[in-house]
Amino acid sequence: MAPISNWVTFANPMDNPLYQFGAVYNLPYDVGYKIWQLLGGLIAWLLDVLVPGNGVSLWLVGNAVSNALALVLMIIVVFAVCFIVNLTMIWIERKVLGRLMDRRATRIGPLGYLQCLGDGLKTFLKEHIVPDKADTKGYMWAVSIIIGSSVLVAGMIPLSYRFFLADYGSGLLIIFGLFSIAPFMILVAGWSQNNKYALLGGMRAAAQMISYEVPMLVVFASVALMAGSFNINEIVGYQNDNVWFIVPQIIGFVVFMIAATAEAERIPFDLPEAEAELVEGWQTEYGGMKWGLIMLSDYFRGYVACALGAIMFLGGWTLPFVDDSFLPEIVFLLKVILLFFIMVWTRGTLCRIRTDQILNIGWKILLPLAVLNLFVVVVLKVGGLV
Amino acid sequence: MAMKYLDKYPKNNSRHLWVLKSFYTTFKQIIKTTRHRPVTIMYPYEKEWIPDYYRGRPGLVFDKCVGCGICERICPTTCIEMVEVDDAKAGKVVRPQVNVGRCMMCGYCAEYCPTKAMITTPEYELAAYTREGLIFDPYQLAYEGHNEEMQVHMHEHLLSDLQKGITDNPVNASLVDRPALDDAKCIGCSRCAKECPVGAVEMIVVGENDKGKPIKRPKFDEAKCIACEKCVMICPKDALALKEVL
């Protein structure tokens, strides 16, 4: 009978021959691997105590099972981090709005931090209602895809050079592509609810998001052009080596922030759910936990927008003049929260604008500015200044 | 300067940059409300500061009250009723009872009380489980720790005083009226003397009638009188009326 230290070894995951990430150390994978080595090792030791010399114990702590379960646990860890960041962002939004209106915002838990969990519990306890005349398949699938794609794109955001799900060469494009799935599904959701407010909201959402994706894509292009890559690691590394892109591309930053606010459907661009005219816009017929998850995925999208801003313009997880080995994830999240604070501040300051104004700003102001930004980048690149 | 330029070219798109001014305003607001706590008061746990002369529910100083009924008549919502109580010290007396469910906390009863027995208390948490619980009898109306500031007695300068050059004699205008007798109507029944709550009416024999019975007429002690109008209302022949003393 082997002692417990033979089973719970806490081995280095990079020694596993099935390690997926090549030569790069992956923090969430390591956490998942260590959790499985603790749990699986304990189970294997117990089995070994009960039935000495069985094969199941060896199989449980073997390379293949460890790798597979470490990948599952890694996904859970990444999602948990996203979720906690999201709750923090909702808390920040409610607190800052409360301060803006000279009232005390959230109250449950320490500093009101647990209010979102209370609201989530409340929506969770509500009845699941599907409208009688609604197209049930479209109704359920659309909301599933909206929520799923929002969570997926939030999980795709790397928090640092060691905290990522996948390190693609075209990471920025993949994130942008996943980010653009939701608008079409919002149109489907608005259509399938068989409700005029929902349909109007869905159409507004589609019009607004499709027109704001154009300047956003041009800004993405100028960032990728300046960095010479779509890989997020390389974009951040290029900024760390040279200069944060907010300095040469300040126009692009402003255009990106406005477009991202519109993409995340936040005030002043929250026309799709203009609660004064359209009840709750395209979410009108969604109730209970579906609505709660839609609200949560709205914040996931807000998080993605702010994270992209931090990656593309604020140097990601690096700091200038400082050794960037100290907790890069925290540095990155602080930058994200700074950008999110600007979004909340905007929400507390401005009023909602009209549909024609929203499209005018998108096509007549933001698109020329984005092209101007691209032009600046081309001139700098051709002139060899960056 | 910049505004002038923008007014000259109203179609210039950079006009819209003035939206940034509101960002500055709201940022100042965030700083202000973060440094000082928000104005919200968490009511059941925190209570608001109560100013002097706060008009909560009416209170009564039982010993000062003479039961004249001015409060009952002045009350805009008629929530005050004079009830007879059997007091241990004073015997059977008439005292006000207040239905605070109807009371609108105007404090008129305290303003017009001639003996300053009605007061306004700072109590405002008056919820009760039944409607009967909202009716405060004269003993419930008592308020521990009442002080001068709760007697919100009305003070005015009379026009007649000002014409005479007197400026240091503020009075309650309705309490300076005094009853006047129409001698021809009086039958000398002395009900006014019995009704007067402060004993300001005294029946005086002014002569004899044809049958040798004494003719009585009321005499009013103007210093004691509180102008409660009770004698005027009780008079069977309308011989009394309140007249302003100029």
Could you please describe the fold and organization of this structure?
The complex is a heterodimer of chains A (386) and B (246). With 386 residues, chain A is mainly α. Chain A folds into two domains: 13-84, no CATH class; 132-382, no CATH class. Helices cover 66% and strands 0% of the residues of chain A. Chain A has 14 helices and no strands. In chain A, helix 2 packs across helix 4 (63-100), helix 6 (136-156) packs parallel to helix 12 and helix 12 (288-313) packs across helix 13 (328-349). The longest helix of chain A has 38 residues, at 63-100. Chain A is globular and about 75 Å long. The N and C termini of chain A lie far apart (64 Å). The mean pLDDT of chain A is 86. Helices cover 20% and strands 20% of the residues of chain B. Chain B has two domains: 58-150, Alpha-Beta Plaits (2-Layer Sandwich), CATH 3.30.70.3270; 159-243, Alpha-Beta Plaits, CATH 3.30.70.20. Chain B is elongated, with a radius of gyration of 29 Å. Chain B is of the alpha+beta class and 246 residues long. Chain B contains seven helices and nine strands; from the N terminus they run ααβαββαββαβαββαβ. Chain A binds chain B through residues 96, 98-100, 102-104, 345-346, 348-350, 365, and chain B through 13, 19, 22-23, 25-27, 29-30, 33-34, 37-40, 42.
Largest sheet of chain A: none
SSE succession of chain B: HHEHEEHEEHEHEEHE
* Number of continuous helical runs of chain B: 7
What is the typical, i.e. mean, pLDDT of chain B?
85
Largest sheet of chain B: 3 strands, antiparallel
Low-confidence region ranges of chain B: none
Report the uncertain regions of chain A: none
What does the overall shape of chain B look like?
elongated
The name of the CATH architecture of the largest domain in chain B is 2-Layer Sandwich
Order of helices and strands of chain A: HHHHHHHHHHHHHH
Q: Distance N terminus to C terminus of chain B? A: 67 Å
Round the Cα radius of gyration of chain B to an integer and report it.
29 Å
CATH fold-level topology of the largest domain in chain B: Alpha-Beta Plaits
- What is the oligomeric state here? heterodimer
- Characterize the overall form of chain A: globular
Number of structural units classed as domains of chain B = 2
> What amount of the residues of chain A lies in strands?
under 5%
